[in-house]
Known about the structure:
Blueprint: H1 20-26, H2 29-32, H3 36-52, H4 58-76, H5 89-101, H6 103-106, H7 115-152, E1 157-162, E2 165-171, H8 172-197, H9 216-222, H10 232-237, H11 240-267, E3 274-275, H12 294-317, H13 331-355, E4 357-358, H14 360-365, H15 373-381, H16 387-403, H17 414-420, H18 434-440, H19 449-462
Antiparallel strand pairs: 1-2, 3-4
Helix pairs in contact: 3-4, 3-7, 3-9, 4-5, 7-8, 7-13, 7-19, 8-11, 8-19, 11-12, 11-13, 12-13, 15-16
Protein name: Argininosuccinate lyase
Domain Fumarate lyase N-terminal: 12-308
GO molecular function, one term: argininosuccinate lyase activity
Amino acid sequence: MENKNSQKLWGGRFTGEVDPLMQLYNASLPYDYKMYKVDLQGTKSYTSGLQKLGLLTEDELSEIHYGLGKIKEEWENNTFIRLPSDEDIHTANERRLGEIIGTGIAGKVHTGRSRNDQVATDMRIYCRDILTNNLLTYLKELISVICRRANEEMDILMPGYTHLQRAQPIRWSHWLSFYATYFTEDYKRLQEILARLNVSPLGAGALAGHPYGIDREFLAQDLGFSGVIGNSLVAVSDRDFVVEIMFWGSLFMNHISRFSEDLIIYSTAEFGFIKLSDAYSTGSSLMPQKKNADSLELLRGKSGRVFGDLAGFLMTLKGVPSTYDKDLQEDKEALFDSLVTVENSILIATGVVSTLTVDKAKMEQALTMDMLATDLADYLVRKGVPFRETHHISGECVALAEKLKLSGIDKLSIEQYKQIDARFEKDLFETFDFEKSVERRNATGGTAKSAILKQLENIQTQLQ
């Protein structure tokens, strides 16, 4: 009777049956099947490398590449049949290759290769593809949508907040540019991670290197890598790129969470600054009048999920001895979940921003004259009074207006102003203009129209 372990890539050493629970516990195919395409791609390049060494004939290479193509078609057509003995995507693909072209030739594809360098290669290609084709593309679109709205809605003024208290008037476009700047930094970080992960571990073997002297530079070039990992021990065990991607996802989702929190607040009846489209809202099961910002609440909530993926894998990684250990199999579920969650979050955020409506009147109604107290202090600064002194004088003006129960500091008379400080003149009332207030702040990064346009131009330049 044939031992079932003989069908496994590692089966020759073992004669006893594997505990069925252990077989399930050990299997990764339920989630690493996602890498079927890059696994086939890696094997195609690797066998080309073996043929260059004379370990495969041209006919054998042709047969192998034909079989790999058929397997790819089966995965794409959803006709690939998985077997209980398929531990992972590597085992499944190699088993199926043997069924198509015969085990005699298929058995040669693993010559000098280990699943250790195979899976490391697969993951780097998979991540490279997701980061390039999905995350960077979608994030660029999110930033572009925000910038487009900022350009179109430049004339809308709103309160700027610190400590969630009204602080100074700003442009709505300035708030949009605020998050576009955050997301642009995220975009740049992702490009840096992409450059670091794009090096090849293939040809490192299990850990000690390749016994037949395969051309690792050829493999790297053929697979689109920028170079090779110079130490074979590092090549098979390094998962820093996984940590970096998940850290990036956690930081990005932190920004998305803050972005969502602001919009949730602005969408409440108490603020009424924005209104979400029906496509990104839900109702209440009990209260018919409710329109809930569930899209934004989910974005805020899923930031915790992505951070949990990172924290969990970091705890797994911290005690792993050199070099490859099965603990590293825990990288995939956390990484895949993080990638999918972040990708979907970018798409949802893009939909929210592109479809929400802004209530210009509500935003501008929320502006109050006390928000120009700093402008009042600046008025005296321009007359040569030290700011520390003008800050105190402006505060006295605010206190007097409150004591007299006036609606704002602009309602004090010139006589009342002069009682506080004789250096006030009638032209001080020109200070009480929200549009002029924002336009005074025209230094780089400010809320004046010219400053915001420069911010948006700079962001677009960084996305090119």
